[in-house]
Amino acid sequence: MARSGLTKSQVREARDRLVAEGRHPSVDAVRHALGDSGSKSTIHKYLKELRAEDGGADAVPGMRREDTGRVLHALVDEVADRLHAGFDERMRQLRAAHDQALLERDHELAELRSTVATLTARVKQLELEAQFGADETPLRHWQDRGGVPGGFVHFDNNLLNSRSTVRDISPFDLIRAAARS
């Protein structure tokens, strides 16, 4: 049985279809467009003949050098626009995240300043009470301990002691208890 061969018109149609899709009409692309039929050498031969018939142009039939330049410039401009748009969107997102982080930091800083102001006021109040003798019972216990100076001079030691198992009533314990309430 004789095989039906590939015709030049079939190759032309496949080539034109690829060009219309914006793809390069290579031998493999044309063969794939033809349903993977025909030999590569036959397709190459027909493509070469079709180029010669079209005026020997290496480019796409009917397309001049100036047209190719315009198409390429338009394509490059489109890609550049996409890149810039993506960059602008990413920068907008990063700025928004940065602004949100700054707001959260400012809020936290305001809370910490408020806490410091409250504790400072409480320390001053306790110092005044200790100085003028208002309800000195807890402070007297602290000051009467042998070998341990009273007041807030050893605040860092008191902080360490407050985290250990030693449970003495000290000015620091008073401040800490007041801060909790």
What do you see in this structure?
By secondary structure, the protein is mainly alpha-helical. Helix content is 70%, strand content 0%. It is built from seven helices and no strands. Helix 1 crosses helix 2, helix 1 packs across helix 3 and helix 2 crosses helix 3. The longest helix has 68 residues.
| Mean residue pLDDT | 79
Fraction in beta strands: under 5%
Topology as a string of helices (H) and strands (E): HHHHHHH
Structural class: mainly alpha
Which blocks of ≥5 consecutive residues have pLDDT under 50?
Answer: 144-148
Helicity level: over 70%
Tags for this model:
single chain; 181 residues; mainly alpha; 7 helices
Task: Offer a quick outline of the entry.
This protein has helices at 8-20, 27-33, 40-53, 65-132, 137-143, 155-162, 171-180. It has 181 residues and is mainly α.
Set out the fold topology.
Layout lengths: L7 H13 L6 H7 L6 H14 L11 H68 L4 H7 L11 H8 L8 H10 L1
Helix pairs in contact: 1-2, 1-3, 2-3, 4-7
